[in-house]
Amino acid sequence: MPVQQFVLTYPVEAALTLLGLFIFLFVLFNLLKRPDSSFLLRPIPAYERLRNLTVQSIETGQPMHVSMGSGEWSQATPELVAGLIALDYVGREATRADEALCATMGNPVTLLLAMNVLQLNFVRAGAYTGPAGNELYFYGPDRLAYAGGSAHQAYRRPREAHALVGNFGDDGLWLAEALQPGGAPVLGGTSDPATAALMHLSVDESIIGEDLFAAGAYLHRPRHLGSLAAQDVMRFLVALAIIAGAILASLGVGG
């Protein structure tokens, strides 16, 4: 039976087959991975530069600025989780060196989670309070107010770099443009196609589309490697199946 006919005739069985294949690949890659491994991962320059700039921030004493957007938590959970992961990475490295950071957000839930993430980093480092210079600012969900407030705080003192990782709309473009005259590198992006296209023109290193959701695997969470590798393989297999189906259909096979 041709693949396309099987999928149309038995959709539930086809979905369960794909799910089973994904689970098998997920378990396999997690068993094969090593803590220092980046197997099957293509390079994403923005994450590599974020790691380098975090080290430079510790050396120069100039804090990093992490902006997580003004989007509603209920409508953009994956993007905001990616922002929290980036904040966790920068905060963890800064806490180890007793350095501070600056974070801006426009959602109260994100603010509470950001405070929790940084507190956990302090506890891991053996302290219960962080560096006195840590700055967390909440500007509300209005996108223009958020962009203006974040840009103002970023200019209050020198920043090593600005990482815009989260849910952005027009505020992402406004903020990225406002940060450029300061001279510090601006990194970041969002998963929204229209906003990502505009932000790509305004940042020094962009994170495009679904690359945003790979923050954990590329920064500091090796356990995410197996999941990401499994997803990449599944995408490749689905694309291969579509191409093969198109070729077979053109040749009149299975029609």
Please describe the structure with a list of short key phrases separated by commas or semicolons.
2 domains, 255 residues, single chain, globular, 10 helices, alpha/beta
How many structural domains can be distinguished in the coordinates? 2
For the sheet with most strands, the description reads: 6 strands, parallel
The amount of beta strand, in percent, is: 5-15%
Give the uncertain stretches in residue-range form.
none
CATH-derived topology of the largest domain:
Rossmann fold
Distance between the termini: 11 Å
Strand order of the largest sheet: 3-2-1-4-5-6
Quickly give the structural class: alpha/beta
Give the overall silhouette.
Answer: globular
Could you tell me the mean pLDDT?
A: 79
Output the CATH class name of the largest domain.
Alpha Beta
CATH architecture of the largest domain: 3-Layer(aba) Sandwich
Topology pattern, helix = H, strand = E: HHHEHEHEHEHEHEHH
**Level of helix content?**
55-70%
Total count of strands = 6
Report the radius of gyration as a whole number of Å.
Answer: 21 Å
The count of helical stretches stands at 10
Describe the structure in your own words.
There is one protein chain. This protein is an alpha/beta fold. It has 2 domains: 3-35 and 225-250, no CATH class; 45-221, Rossmann fold (3-Layer(aba) Sandwich). The protein is 57% helix and 10% strand. It has 10 helices and 6 strands; from the N terminus they run αααβαβαβαβαβαβαα. It has helices at 3-9, 11-32, 45-60, 77-96, 108-124, 143-154, 170-179, 193-200, 215-219, 223-250; strands at 65-69, 102-105, 135-138, 162-167, 186-189, 205-206. It has a 6-stranded parallel beta sheet with strand order 3-2-1-4-5-6, sandwiched between helices. Strand 5 (186-189), helix 8 (193-200) and strand 6 form a beta-alpha-beta unit. The longest helix has 28 residues, at 223-250. It is globular and about 65 Å long. The model has no long low-confidence stretch (mean pLDDT 79).
